[in-house]
Amino acid sequence: MMLSILYRGPLSSCNYGCPYCPFAKTKDSRETLEKDAAQLLRFVQFVQQQHDIQFKILFTPWGEALIRKHYQEAMTTLSHLPNVHKVSIQTNLSSRLNWLQKANVSKIALWTTYHPGETDRTAFLQQCHQLDTLGVAYSVGVVGFKETITEIESLRAALPAGRYLWINALKKQADYYTAEETAVLQGIDPHVAYNMVHHETLGKACKTGHTVISVDGDGNMHRCHFIKEKIGNIYDTTFRQSLYPRACTNATCGCHIGYVHLEHLQLYQLYEGRELERIAPV
Ligand code: SF4
Ligand code: SF4
């Protein structure tokens, strides 16, 4: 049995100050960080004990978690477990990367996001280069603000040709992009069209709740990050009974970490097993 878990603990702080983000330059209290570390350790121990499950794990913290030693250690431990197929994390890639030398890098994958204004392109690319040297798989992405498009083009030109660059499209405002801007973005990210819409999902089959779940620090299971109904708890020995096919109960789904699991979009084929970390073949 293969189970993908999107884990999000109580940590909600970030060392960057992106102006659109509620976690910009926030600090967690020592108590919150200790609780986050203790809950993460419990999660790692849970994974360790489920010998009959192969796990794909994506950490999706509210803020930046990879600067924290307990995430680096958790990822390292998980990467060495025989029943972990993959362990990934969403990160701004600002952390030191030497911890990866102790990890089984063949099982690590990073979902990295470049934040112009918070770091410069050269510094970000140096981090990417270090990942290349270490042999770590990763995707690179950028939020597609209109005023960032030129910088995204420069980043694309500077990245190795085989490195996928995804773009998170702005979709709150209809017709936000001109036709020309859309064409430029599609030239950079051939799959950005999937991210430019809120997919209509009510009643549609989605793998979440069956082979994919969202888990919080207390072990509470939700089918995904977007539907609040609790479906179980991984620390309850009967948690497997909560896993079965379900139709989506939300009207729409607009984030990669959600719609990638919709059956009818068949995006698992497109991502060839790297849907969690958002690495598409280019
Ligand atoms: S790096 Fe991510 S979490 Fe941190 S402020 Fe920017 S958008 Fe928010
Ligand atoms: S389509 Fe999106 S909102 Fe609906 S169940 Fe799947 S991940 Fe959740």
Automatic annotation (TrEMBL):
Known cofactor(s): [4Fe-4S] cluster
InterPro entries: Aldolase_TIM, Radical_SAM_STM4011-like, rSAM, rSAM_sf, Sulphatase_maturase_rSAM
Domain of life: Bacteria
GO molecular function: iron-sulfur cluster binding; metal ion binding; oxidoreductase activity
Record Gene3D superfamilies: Aldolase class I
Keywords of this entry: Iron, Iron-sulfur, Metal-binding, S-adenosyl-L-methionine
Family assignment from sequence similarity: Belongs to the radical SAM superfamily. Anaerobic sulfatase-maturating enzyme family.
Protein name (database record): Radical SAM protein
Organism in which the protein naturally occurs: Filimonas zeae
Lineage: Bacteria, Pseudomonadati, Bacteroidota, Chitinophagia, Chitinophagales
